[in-house]
TrEMBL record:
Residues passing through the membrane, by range: 16-34
Name recorded for this polypeptide: 4Fe-4S ferredoxin-type domain-containing protein
GO molecular function: 4 iron, 4 sulfur cluster binding; metal ion binding
Keywords for this protein: 4Fe-4S, Electron transport, Iron, Iron-sulfur, Membrane, Metal-binding, Transmembrane, Transmembrane helix, Transport
Top-level taxon in the UniProt lineage: Bacteria
InterPro entries with a match to the protein in the record: 4Fe4S_Fe-S-bd, 4Fe4S_Fe_S_CS, Electron_Trans/Redox
GO CC annotations on file: plasma membrane
Tagged with keyword Ribosomal protein: no
Coiled-coil intervals: none
Residue intervals of the 4Fe-4S ferredoxin-type domain: 103-132, 138-168
Organism in which the protein naturally occurs: Prolixibacter bellariivorans
Keyword Cell membrane: no
Length: 183
């Protein structure tokens, strides 16, 4: 329970965390002349463990892009989606790793009330509702898709605490296969 409270607090502070890590990374890379290959390796490593967290929790460019996207609120979902579809080499690698990462967004079907709030918070399922859903059976889980940048808004906004971000490694089953089996 304590872990979940801490996670929700961290999600609410995500932008602050992103600015602090992003600026620190930018200064460290510039001051110590660290090769971008090491940054790429670091991004890939975080991708294996946590999925595509680099873009929205650590990236200096991501900080600027998020600021620019927030200037057009009506279009921010679409812009965020496009931005995270293209990305950079770190985003390509860690986005692909969303399917296989150790930590994933997990749904507790027993407590889910099918209210749909999570889907409305997610730019992927909002823009592709026929294909993606965080809670509906028979649809792909956006959390496993390339574009999920682990903003974790879905986890934070679920009123029943039915979504968590936790260690859920399963090399043989995709999120879709799991949801189809439960149908
Ligand atoms: S917000 Fe929570 S309770 Fe509502 S549909 Fe999503 S997972 Fe289920
Ligand atoms: S973390 Fe949740 S809300 Fe954010 S993009 Fe991924 S599935 Fe959507």
């Amino acid at each position: 329970m304590k872990k979940q409270k801490l996670l929700r607090w961290a999600i609410k502070q995500r932008k602050v965390i992103q600015v602090i890590i992003g600026v620190a990374l930018y200064i460290t890379i510039g001051y110590y002349h660290i090769s971008l290959w090491y940054v790429l390796l670091f991004g890939a490593f975080t991708g294996v463990i946590l999925g595509k967290v680099f873009c929205r929790w650590m990236c200096p460019m991501g900080v600027m892009m998020e600021f620019l996207m927030s200037m057009t609120p009506g279009e921010s979902f679409r812009q965020t989606y496009q931005y995270h579809k293209l990305g950079c080499p770190i985003a390509w690698i860690s986005g692909w790793l969303n399917r296989f990462s150790f930590y994933r967004i997990s749904l507790n079907k027993d407590t889910c009330k099918s209210c749909g709030i999570c889907d409305k918070q997610c730019y992927i399922s909002t823009l592709n509702s026929a294909k993606y859903s965080i809670y509906q059976n028979g649809k792909e889980r956006p959390g496993a898709s390339f574009s999920c940048s682990k903003c974790l808004q879905c986890v934070s906004e679920c009123p029943n605490g039915s979504l968590t971000y936790k260690f859920a490694f399963s090399p043989l089953k995709t999120e879709k296969q799991v949801s189809m089996k439960k149908k």
